[in-house]
Write a structure and sequence with these properties.
The chain is of the alpha+beta class. 33% of the residues lie in helices and 19% in strands. β1, α1 and β2 form a beta-alpha-beta unit. α1 crosses α2 and α5 crosses α6. About 6% of the residues have low confidence.
Length: 442
């Protein structure tokens, strides 16, 4: 028998109340106790195992939350497994991995966990045995591996758990961007490598989309493959902008600048209309290295063009006009979602601990008349300690008149144009709640 305690990670443990210690002393020693590590999503290390085992008086049954994507459903976590100590086999009683919801992509997980050396190296876990990547993806193994190498990070998330991504090309992007920022030039060899990488992305996307060798896999990840191709095209067009800039070719620069804007709109449209789920809708690729690199280079090339030719082309980094502000550590790293006429905060699956005067604010790019405001914190008594507020000038806050339907707060604005909306803990005491919904209808 295996049980999952309420305090199943160290960040939730309350030593003063002694819950884990009571389990260790009173629970039948034959019953295993699940544990996710120092946090809900975390790598497993010896010092953490020693800590929990001393509390529960038995080897913990590890519940490892990777590569589960229930809190980053707009990403594919297709990179290698790493980060766990490799000498802790005897400190645990078992290992359970939480996997993706999509059946085909989750088989691509590269198992390099070596708690028991050699047992699961380069393997995946599945109900009917173990399968190598090359068995699943033949004859497109190399293309799948290339795609996976740029789609392994989780993006910004409340658990603050990140993975390496684009490992081979990352040093090139950093070196290139640094040189362009400081000197206005760049290593020619790096320019060639980046052009080749973006071309390879476009080609890989085209071939994978048309592949008939594993049509169920391709169907599952089709939107991400399309987005991958658009990212490659965008990167290639930005490199063309640099070539135009070096040649002082204003007309070609403007054409390539417009081409990038068009590709960004296509990426936004694909993100806004695919993988529509209630939690983290959308399609994100290359979010750790390639997408920020392309966005940064696009903005800097535009700034350099404006300075060189005395023009005023809009400097666009990425299409994300609104901002999340919060003094709650579990919240401030969560991404905002912008879908058509709705701005929403990605929900969190864990208990949110809010000190007195804690706030969660969605700040709009400009003052806007809102159609609706909805906030769900999983508490029926929310208005006894919390309050929804708005500001029209970014400084002076006013309380919103709210209706509460169970755990959901609803507010309707009048004729005011709103600059920001926030939820505030006004009780003067720490509170706990679940962040399930915070949505502004534009």
């Amino acid at each position: 028998m295996v049980m999952c305690p309420t305090e199943y990670n160290k960040s939730w443990a309350n030593l003063e109340k002694g819950y884990l210690r009571t389990l260790g002393e009173k629970l039948n020693p034959s019953i295993q106790i699940m544990w996710t590590g120092d946090r809900v999503v975390a790598d497993i290390h010896r010092d953490g195992m020693d800590w929990i085992n001393s509390q529960i008086k038995r080897p913990a049954y590890i519940w490892w939350n990777f590569p589960v994507t229930d809190y980053v459903r707009d990403h594919l976590l297709m990179g290698p497994v790493y980060g766990n100590d490799t000498d802790i086999a005897q400190t645990m009683s078992g290992l359970l991995q939480t996997q993706w919801s999509m059946p085909k992509p989750r088989k691509l997980l590269f198992m390099v966990w070596q708690i028991i050396p050699g047992t699961w190296r380069n393997m995946i876990l599945m109900p009917h045995g173990k399968v190598h990547l090359r068995q699943l993806c033949q004859p497109i193994t190399k293309l799948c591996a290339f795609f996976a190498s740029h789609n392994s990070d989780l993006g910004a998330n409340g658990h603050k758990y990140r993975r390496e991504e684009s490992v081979i090309i990352k040093p090139v992007t950093e070196r290139f961007l640094s040189a362009f920022q400081s000197e206005g030039t760049y290593p020619k060899d790096d320019f060639t490598m980046l052009e080749r990488e973006f071309k390879s992305i476009v080609v890989a996307s085209d071939i994978l989309l048309r592949s008939k060798d594993n049509d169920l896999l391709i169907k599952d990840i089709n939107p991400w493959i399309k987005q991958f191709g658009l990212l490659g095209q965008t990167g290639a067009a930005v490199m063309d902008m640099l070539r135009d800039l070096e040649a002082s070719d204003k007309e070609s620069f403007k054409l390539d600048y417009s081409r990038v804007k068009e590709l960004k709109e296509q990426m936004f449209e694909l993100d806004a209309t695919n993988n529509i789920n209630p939690w983290q809708p959308g399609v994100k690729v290359g979010s750790l290295v390639l997408t920020p690199f392309v966005n940064n280079l696009y903005a800097q090339a535009t700034e350099r063009y404006n300075k060189q030719f005395g023009e005023n082309l809009a400097v666009v980094y990425d299409y994300c006009p609104h901002t999340l502000l919060s003094n709650i550590s579990q919240v401030k790293s969560l991404p905002l979602q912008l879908k058509e006429k709705t701005v929403s905060l990605s929900p969190s699956n864990e208990v949110i601990k809010a000190d007195k005067d804690a706030f969660i604010t969605i700040q709009l790019l400009k003052a806007t008349k809102l159609r609706s405001i909805e906030f769900n914190a999983g508490k029926a008594d929310l208005l006894q300690w919390g309050e929804l507020q708005f500001t029209t000038d970014g400084e002076n806050w006013q309380a919103l008149a709210c209706e509460q339907d169970g755990e959901l707060l609803k507010a309707t604005m009048g004729k005011e144009s709103v600059k920001a909306v926030r939820f505030l803990n006004k009780s003067g005491e720490p509170q706990e709640f679940y962040l399930r919904k915070f949505t502004l209808g534009l």
